[in-house]
Fold:
Amino acid sequence: MTTRSDLHERMKTILQDSQGITWNESELDEGLRIALNMYNSVSPHSKQATLVMENPGREISLDSIPGLVGVTEVWWPYDPETPESPWPPNKVAGFRLWWDGCKPVLFLSSFKGRLPHTGETVRVWYACLHTIEGLDGNLTTTVPEADTSLIVLGAAGFAASSACLDRGETLQPELLENTAQAWLEEFHNGLDILRLRPDHNTSEPWGEGWQMDRW
Structure:
């Protein structure tokens, strides 16, 4: 599993600063944060959870799910004892995520059929932020290995661009800025490609599905 230290070493290689003389760890970390935040805005980490309804109705509290930033898919009705029956599952048509202060609430906006009852189970696919082991105290890296090179490139670009502002007199600022911008352009092009990736999840609600009732 790739860690913060691994990514630092790769950034130093790109920046031609293998001894860490020009960029310190804090500056490398900040480059990683910016690149990771932009990556998360395009390709967040996808997870799933099952929720047992505590109250009936179309509003479902999601504050028990840590780190949730979006909802990509909802299955209901859903039986965790027989997850593949019926198949295909009912992907709920018409839902949205809204925030009650800092608490996420799933709102089932379809007006067709009945609503979930107390004790029933709803399965939710959701988006959360990727993490890097060792960065900001995180214990795991969730970024796919295939995408780490893109994050390293963006992080190096941000670190190089920042150095032009406060140490330009010692780092040939014009050359460094041109190099940084080339890296960042390649980074943004990579993000554009990710947006088109078939497995990319969005938080747009499903427009089609079964009615919210049992057959």
The beta strands are 45-52, 59-61, 68-78, 95-100, 103-108, 121-128. The first strand starts at residue 45 and ends at 52.
